[in-house]
Description:
- Helices cover 32% and strands 22% of the residues.
- The chain is an alpha/beta fold.
- Helix 8 packs parallel to helix 9.
- The model has no long low-confidence stretch (mean pLDDT 92).
Amino acid sequence: MPRLRLATRGSPLARWQAEWVGRRLGREVELVIVETAGDRRQDVSLASIGGQGVFVKEVQTAVLEGRADAAVHSAKDLPSVTAPGLWLAAIGERDDPRDALVGSTLERLPAGARVATGSIRRRAQLANLRPDLTFAELRGNIATRLAKAGGHDAIVIAAAALRRLGLADQIAEAVDPELLVPQVGQGAIAVECRAEDAAVQEILATIDDPPTRRAVTAERAFLATLGSGCSLPVGAYATAAAGDGLSLLAVILSGDGRICLRHKEAGTDPVALGESVGHHLLVASGGAEVLQLAAEPGGE
C-alpha cells in the first residue's frame, strides 16, 4: 500500500498526534491538513458553535471524500456515535486523562480567583468545588492559551496535551479525575477510516489498545445515552476493575455548578455499563431535568 494519508487539524498538537500514529504504525505517512469550524471560530465559545463535533466534521469529510485514508482525532472531540460511512479503527493507549491547572493549584487559588477555560464541563465542576471562583472564556491552540495565562489566576488545559508538546513543566496541578471528572475520551487518540476500507482497517488495528478501547467505549456509551456532547456539563471516566471489569464514574452538572450529580458503577460489558450509568443519572438522579436547564440559553 502507498504512503498512508492521515487527515488532521493543523495545530501543533493535532500534528503531533497524527505523527504519533505514523510512528506507532512504523510507516511513512502524509498529513492532510484540514481546517475545522472550531479552528475558524476562535472568537466565540464552543457551545455557541455546536460543541462536540466542531473539531472533527471537516477532518472526517476528507476521509469520506477520498482525500485521506484515515482521520486522527483527540478522542474527546468525537461525537458519541460514529458518523455514517466511517469506522473507529483504533483507539491508542491512553495518556494522562486529567485536567491540568496552569498558574496555580486549586487549593492555592485566592478567594474570587479568575480561572480561564473554554469548557463548560470544567467550569461547572470547578464552580461546584469552589463557588467563589470567577471564570473567563479561553480558546485557541495550546501556545495561544498558555500565552494568555498571565492574565488570569489560572487556566485549565488537558494534561495530555501539555505532556505531548513537552510542556509538562507548566502544570501547577493535574487534578484527580475522581475530583474533576474528565471529558469522555480525554487523553486518548482516535483514528477513523472508511467503513468499507478493510485494508486500512487492518493496518490501523495494529495500534488499537484494548484496555483503552474498553474504557473509552464505556464512556462513549454513557454520552450516547445522554444524547449530549461537550457543549453540556457532563464528564465520564472509566478505569480497569477486578478481572475483566470496568469501573465508570460519571457526572451531570447544572451550568453554574450548584447541582452536581455523580454515579459510579462496575461491570464487564463496556456498552451496557455506559448505558446503565447514563440511565441512572438521567432517571434515578434527575439528570434529564438538569441537562434541560443547562441546554437552555443562559441556563444554569
